[in-house]
TrEMBL record, chains A, B:
Residues 1-70 form the HTH merR-type domain. PANTHER family: HTH-TYPE TRANSCRIPTIONAL REGULATOR ADHR (PTHR30204:SF98), REDOX-CYCLING DRUG-SENSING TRANSCRIPTIONAL ACTIVATOR SOXR (PTHR30204). It holds the Pfam family MerR_1. The keyword DNA-binding applies. The keyword Mitochondrion does not apply. PROSITE patterns: HTH_MERR_2. Keywords: DNA-binding. This is MerR family transcriptional regulator. InterPro entries: DNA-bd_dom_put_sf, MerR-type_HTH_dom, MerR_fam.
Amino acid sequence: MRISELSRRAGVPLSAVKYYQREGLLPEGVRSAPNQVDYGDAHVHRVRLIRALLETGGLSVAATKDVIAALDAEDAPLAETFRVAQHAMATPRTADSTPSDAARQRIATFARSQGWEVTDDNPGIDAAARALDGLRAIGFEAPDSYLGAYAAAAATVAAADLRALSSLATPDQVAELMVVGTILGDPLFAGLRRLAQQDVTRTLFPTDAKRAPS
Amino acid sequence: MRISELSRRAGVPLSAVKYYQREGLLPEGVRSAPNQVDYGDAHVHRVRLIRALLETGGLSVAATKDVIAALDAEDAPLAETFRVAQHAMATPRTADSTPSDAARQRIATFARSQGWEVTDDNPGIDAAARALDGLRAIGFEAPDSYLGAYAAAAATVAAADLRALSSLATPDQVAELMVVGTILGDPLFAGLRRLAQQDVTRTLFPTDAKRAPS
């Protein structure tokens, strides 16, 4: 198919498809005539995958490239593919936003107190520790019961992710869902959390209470 | 205090403090002499808040501005402050990433089947629907049991957030934690999820199984 049909079938604008190609995310098609390049079903699948990672997952182009390279390395151990997906988080990590040692320590200790076997280079430690630091910056010292509720929720979701992986037939499908599910599980959860929040916080402002005067 | 001490006390680089000021996120200090501007404790608090939203929360400058304006509007109903925080999600929403109607419908129906009272403009519907579309793009049709596990986790976290809010003394503290907790709860959860994932997926590749040949 031509690139215009690739765009149509993937449901992604032509300008975006060309952008993916310029950024080296999408392999070239096959030149079938001096003025014509042909694309196949694998390209349609790849365009949809890139879009999901970049736009829904909020990954950078560089992170998307890493994830796709890991998926394409077919002889790589699944554990390595998974490691790349885990590190490709959408949260920005600028040079000066290193979390405090105290927060890192608390998260690592807390994870182990849940019986989780985790390594010190798991990027979740820094992500969660930065959030603790941010909450502390406004004067909220998250109690253990608060962290515990978040950890229980995380365990529920991780178990559901694992069950979904176990339901798949081929190792390639497992690798792809492992990567995409790790990344898109974040906005899926964040969206459902906004919905659950709206429900529980109805009780907080039953009469549209004003904040001031207190 | 001078701006250099403001930077030191907030634990944020001077260049970042000046950037916040240029972007209109941080109010001016008080000019105490022709060549000197004084800052107070409120500025330290504000710099920390801005940093938490921008860097840990991953918000854009525009979204951070909206959130801060909502916090500063002291006579606004809490429900309105909350609505602004709910809409200030870090996930990018580009013009061409509208979720499918089928996915939106499924999320809205699913939320109501959980007994949640939600409105159609809740931004969580689009965020979760886009994630479903992304999973579908790689051929994974999330079953109800998968969505149900994510929804149960979201309800657990929303209840913990509510308990944390109920523990606070003043309406201003409630407003601030409502906003910052809504935004930083996402990376806190995402981080703990990475840790829980590492634990449960150990069972998936006990011997560093290769993907190919399958």
